[in-house]
Structures are given as C-alpha cells and as structure tokens.
Amino acid sequence: MKKAQGLPLNAIVLGILALLVLVVVGAAWIVGGGNIFRGFSQIIRGQTPGTLTQAQASCQQLCTNIKTGVVPNIESIPRTDYCTKTFDLSQQNPSYAVNEHCYGSESGLVDSRNSPVTTEVLDIPCTITLTNGSSVILDATCCTGGACTVI
Questions:
Q1: Which parts of 33-132 fold into alpha helices (H)?
Q2: Are 87 and 50 spatial neighbours (Cβ–Cβ below 8 Å)?
Q3: Whole-model pTM?
Q4: Concatenated DSSP letters of 12-37
C-alpha cells in the first residue's frame, strides 16, 4: 500500500501566514493606508508626523534629555537630537513647515504647497550646560553649526 503524498505542514503554515499578511496590508490600504505608508516614509527620513502640541512636547523632552545627558563641547551640539529631529506639521496646517525643527524655522523652508514659510511654529528655547561649566543657548545658528551663544 502506497502512502499518500501531500504538502508539508510547514508549507501550509507559511502559506496561511503569507495570506494573512496580504489581507492585513490590503485592508490597511483600502481603509486609508496611504497615510500609514506616508507616516512610515517620514519616520525613515527622520521626520515625525503629528500635531503642533505633540511636536512641542517632543521638543521639550529632547531639551530635557540633553540637559540630563553629557554634551562634551560646542562642536557636538549640531549632532544632538534636539538639533537634528524634524517634524512634518503640514498635515495639521498646510502653511506649517514640512521640516520644522525644535529651535525654529531656518530660512528657505517651504510648506506642503512649496510656499516659503514665514511663521516660526516651533521655537522651543533650550539652554544647556557643557561639561566645562559654560551655558549655551541652542538656537538655529548654533544647531546648524554656526556660532553658539555662550552665557
């Protein structure tokens, strides 16, 4: 008597899982997954989508993190999260900058309609103390590698 041939159990389980993933992705796409995928692309580029209130709270936290961490010298300031993180607030208001920074708008930024941004939406003040004891104000000039204001 010959034994019946069939698919291995592993192949059946993998097929079911693949089908389940396709159903979930398809459902997300139909229900508004375009926003989900846009959010993923913004996160990959280092942008955080959200509301102005969320961005302001995030900037306050980033400033607190710098104050409780160690910033050895002025040259390392532009590499801090406070200076590098960007926020896409154009979903809340089309006139807000697409790449808004905690320290305020830089010149030359545009909104989601490619129009120049004239209003600084985020301008969260942050003053830190370096390991040598001097205090530095983190502003657009300092965060972009220019001269920092030492107080």
A1: 33-44, 52-68, 81-84
A2: yes
A3: 0.60
A4: HHHHHHHHHHHHHHHHHHHTTHHHHH
Structure tokens at 95: 């006139």
| pLDDT tens over the chain, length 151 residues | 566 677 788 888 899 999 999 888 877 666 655 555 555 554 544 455 567 888 889 999 999 998 888 887 888 899 999 999 888 777 777 766 667 888 876 555 666 666 666 555 788 889 998 888 889 999 888 998 899 989 8
Tokens in use for 104? 């305020």
Amino acid at 95: S
User: Edge-to-edge strand order for the sheet containing 135-137?
Assistant: 127-129, 135-137, 149-150
Domain boundaries, the chain: 39-150
How many CA atoms are closer than 13 Å to the CA of 113, on its beta-carbon side? Answer: 7
